[in-house]
Amino acid sequence: MSVTSPVTVANPADGPLHIVGRFGDPHSGAELQVLELARRLKGRREVQLWSDIPPHPVFVKQGVRHIRPFDRQAPFGGTLLLGSVFVDTGFWLQHAKPRRVVVHYNVTSHETLFARLAEVSQVTGVDPEITYVSDPVRLTVNLPGLVERSWIDLRQFLAVPVRRPEFRPFTVGRLSRDSPDKHHAQDPQLYRMLAQRGVKVRVQGGTCLAGELANIPDIELLPAGALPAADFLASIDLFFYRPGSAREAYGRVVVEAMASGLPVVAGAEGAGYAELVQPGVTGWMVRTQEEAFDRVMQLAASRTISETLGEAGRRLARELHQDSAGEALLQYYLN
Q1: Residue 315 scores a pLDDT above 90
Q2: pLDDT tens digits, residue range 80-133?
Q3: Are 100 and 79 in contact (CB under 8 A)?
Q4: Virtual torsion, Cα 29, 131, 111, 17, nearest 10 deg
Q5: How many angstroms separate the Cα of 17 from the Cα of each of 132, 234, 264?
Q6: Residue of 210, 241, 249 whose CA lies nearest to 104
Q7: How far apart are CA 255 and CA 248, in angstroms?
Q8: Which of 50, 107, 256, 310 keeps 20 to 30 A from 86, CA to CA?
Q9: What SS3 state is found at 78?
């Protein structure tokens, strides 16, 4: 007879977990991350979701409330989790009276982090704890804290077949917010080079590149959210990701691509996803335009190698992000 370990439930006397984010963009990884944390805590601790700005209707349907302190609608007591260092704490923080404060650090703006920690400590009288989105980010800050990788529901991505249809042209894809700072300055040139060699390029969140890439055969630019992420990733054979001026502290989309069985070719500079993209195992990290082009063409020439890397990436994504892998971190919010 198997014995099941009891599920830990938070003590009601500890009060709710108040998660505060910026729920204005339905395609923002930071907000999707805290929503997934709330899902995993359901039934184990009371969670209240808050936004410092008017939340997008998509998030309102999921229970996110706009902080309005003068209407007595604001976090109070319990544990306060700031899902981003860019959350506007404002007037409401003075009256929140949390018993515990956690600041989740998921960007690479150390000056902002230190200012937020000092403000929280001064205003609330509580020394804030830090969770880091990746180990590389934690090492650069050099302050104590747990590594809390982005919470991702992998089920839809794990359902995507690793073996892609052979009848379609080899397709390179990228998925991100539709903002110029998310794209590397050399990406348009690379996409043109690939298209000239018969490789199809799809960029969801790429309409901001239309000035350089519109009406070029075999290059398709889609707005952010045009397709569900899993459907888009199922339509490509390789995931290419090279950040622009907006540095990636982790790279949620890289994990989603790996879980979908895709090999990854990614930019090496300032990347928190360095622990994910293992050279020659799950993909390749590249530093130059020439290296990026060569790695993509190498994988385009061999679907066998692409699938081998994709299978390894899926195993790693599953290992890091399945529900069981995050149980120890859930205890952090339950105890």
Answers
A1: yes
A2: 999 999 999 988 999 999 999 999 998 888 999 999 999 999 999 999 999 998
A3: yes
A4: 80
A5: 18, 36, 36
A6: 249
A7: 13
A8: 256
A9: coil
Nearest residue to 172 (alpha-carbon basis) of 239, 261, 254:
239
pTM greater than 0.85: no
Q: Which residues contact residue 324 at a Cβ distance below 8 angstroms, ignoring those fewer than 6 apart?
A: none
| Per-residue pLDDT band at 246 (split at 50, 70, 90) | low
Confirm whether 12-151 and 155-320 share one CATH topology. yes
Cβ 273 vs Cβ 240: under 8 Å: no
Tokens of 220: 């398709």
The mean pLDDT value for 16-45 works out to 91
Q: How many whole angstroms separate alpha carbon 254 and alpha carbon 266?
A: 9
Residue 218, φ and ψ in degrees, nearest 5: 70, 10
Domain boundaries 12-151, CATH class: alpha beta
Q: Are 219 and 201 in contact, with CB atoms under 8 Å apart?
A: yes
How many other β-carbons are positioned within 10 Å of the β-carbon of residue 43? 8
Using alpha carbons, select from 292, 284, 291, 290 the residue that is nearest to residue 263: 284
Query: Cβ distance 193 to 219 under 8 Å?
Result: no
Side chain identity at residue 146, one-letter code: L
Question: Which homologous superfamily is 155-320 in?
Answer: Glycogen Phosphorylase B; (3.40.50.2000)
Domain boundaries, the chain: 12-151, 155-320
Side-by-side strand order, sheet with 238-241: 219-222, 200-204, 171-175, 238-241, 264-267, 283-286
Inter-residue contact 229 to 255 (CB < 8 Å): no
Position 243 pLDDT exceeds 70: yes
Give the amino acid at 5.
Answer: S
